[in-house]
Write a structure and sequence with these properties.
The complex is a heterodimer of chains A (506) and B (247). Chain A has 506 residues and is α+β, with helices and mostly antiparallel strands. Chain A folds into 4 domains: 114 residues, no CATH class; 144 residues, 2-Layer Sandwich (Beta-Lactamase); 75 residues, no CATH class; 146 residues, Histidine kinase-like ATPase, C-terminal domain (Heat Shock Protein 90). Chain A starts with a helix and ends in a 12-residue tail after the last strand. A 5-stranded parallel sheet of chain B has the order 2-1-3-6-7, sandwiched between helices. In chain B, strands 8-9-10-11 form a 4-stranded antiparallel sheet, covered by helices on one side. In chain B, strands 12-14-13 form a 3-stranded antiparallel sheet. Chain B folds into 2 domains: 125 residues, Response regulator (Rossmann fold); 103 residues, Winged helix-like DNA-binding domain superfamily/Winged helix DNA-binding domain (Arc Repressor Mutant, subunit A). Classes of the chains: A alpha+beta (506), B alpha/beta (247). Chains A and B meet through helix 6, helix 7, strand 6, helix 8 and helix 10 of A and helix 1, helix 7 and helix 9 of B.
Amino acid sequence: MPLRQRTRNRAFVISGAIGLALSGLAWSLGAYLGFAGVFMLYMLGAVGTALMYGRWPSLITFIAAVVSYYSFGLDRGMPTTVGSLAYFALILSLILLISQLVARSREQELMARIRERRARNLYQLVQALSSARGVEGILNASIEKLHQTLGIAVAFWLPPTDNTGSPLQMFPASTELEAPQRNLRAAARWSFLNKKNAGMSTDTLADIPALFMPMLSGERALGVMMLSDLDLRRAPADWLRFLETVGRLIAVALDSAQASRQRTEADVRLRVEQLQNALLGAVSHDLRTPLAGVLGTATTLQRNAQGLTAEERGLLENIREQTEKMEYTVDRILHMAALHSGRLHLQKEWVPLEDMLVTARKQIKTVCADRPFQTRISKDLPLLHVDPQLLVQVLTNLLENACRYTPSDRGIELEASANDTEIKVCIIDHGYGVPPGREEEIFTRFSQVKPPVGLGGSGLGLAICAAIIELHGGRIWVRNRVAVRGAVFCFTVPRETEPPMPSDGD
Amino acid sequence: MTTIHEGDLDILLVEDDPSIGGFLQAAMDREPGYRLYWETTLKDAWKAWEKRQIQESRPFALILLDLGLPDGDGQGLIRRLRAHGGELALIIVISARGSEADKVQALDSGADDYLTKPFTIGELLARLRAHLRRRPANAFAESSHWVIGVLELDDLTHTLRKGGVSIPMTPKEYQLFHLFVMNQGRILSYRRILSAVWGEQSSDQAHYVRLYIKRLREKIEDDPGMPQYLVTEKGVGYRFGDPEVSR
């Protein structure tokens, strides 16, 4: 500021001096120039200072010239005082007109220069953003560039990356402003949610010494810029437009950085999944292959057992049974491992319940033997949108359970119905029921109610059911029957809008 | 103790595990009518196949193929066999991989059937008998009248009878049933069924198949809950089986 003041004062002094000098010239040359020539001289000087320094200096020149004109007595020999005054008035109006024109063209020139500088600033910002890596890099580059080129201090308020709805975080965290942190947070939050400016020069929380601008990418707010050390007195509309553009640029950069980070994360997840699948596949292969050797060998011997004693045949049968039991357990454990790796993706398809039931019943043919089986499936039961492999597993486990715990002459029943939101399937047995108080525990891993006769299970069956139903967003529970012996196992899966059906026009 | 007969069926076993190859060799040596040749790598299997094709006019009628072999995946061999003179050979995959995706891929590559390890020798022999029964495949497919169990299908009049009683069917149901009869004993994947009956553009509408199978079962099976003819192959598709053959 003092520098500007000094140049202004100098301009005033020079202008005054010019006015005096003009009078001097008029005095010495008056005889040659004549009345009109003297006034042309004054006009030239006044217009010259107006062009050079603007309105006030030219007025000073004018006043100095007029004062000296009369005090030097130059008006002697001129026609009349009134006539000279009229000439001076003419000069004055010319000065005012010209100085205004000059001022306007100056202003335009200044604005052009400012625009050019902003365009350059934006360009530099774009360059800085495009070479920045990651979200933090982009934010740091923005802070540095805006400070360097515009002299404004910037900090950011960003939502947490996990979209949990927890409060906005300030970046950099060490930013300090002369306002309570609480008010800053409130202003940032308001701006983020309403996608409008807040803080100084706005209608919202105007007493905060910073301006909050949402960073918009399309219609989405990615965060809020907090700008301080900002002079909004000159051309505020222009400034705001410029800052808005800055905000959009940063938002676009942030958006692409976040998208690329998500891609990377998805990529890593996929690879972990592939690895786990490969591992499970290898374990499965390595456990099954020796079992296949044993079972195949035992059954080949059984098939050609003509020379063996009854006892030896019994031993062979023993090998076969134990191998089959082992296979069953291996299957269960691998299944549980797959479910609990947490990486299992449901491969949902639209399936009629009956179709899965056929598969399940085929798998438990040995355990359930010729036990009477009744189904009550409502005629209009919608298709289930489930992973058929997994749901067959649930049905198999529940039916097998029912058979294991029910005396062999009693039947098993299955009921299925749907309401607006879910499809419910219940399996009803005539067994011994569940000990009261253990209704939930039996769905946890390795929990087992001791079966009546020497039938042992892995204790994994119901846990597998619970895990699968949970994955489908359904519920599973058990209750004892009222008045009669037996248990009712039920599960639900959400009912979803059915897909297009094949046209029956055929 | 093995005696070679002219009418014997030549089987090529491709299996790297010695205990499995060993019992299959021992079992087949004792079964009349079968002769087993055992190779342990894809390369040797292909060599044995080619040698048969070129030098002797007696190609292998059946290939038992393990998928995970030391020199690669057996899926490639299936395609290669199908492309090079092995159109008529039966290919049965025996694999310890539990994954249904592998089975579907093998079937779509051209395998006729698969058995998941472990299996009993009885299961394998039953499967072989079922497949051999419908050979030669061409003669079976060229016929227009079939009797399977109590079912009787006449392709000239498009009628199906069960125990002499005519069963009404919509054209699509008939088309589906006909496809199964033509491929008796063979597993048909969802994709294969969809493209044959509903066209290529419906290949991701597996529920069409499931719904129509449900309807067909209600029409032809004694107990639709325990089907004898239209058997589900878990996660893969369906197989039309003759109840007398499949146990």
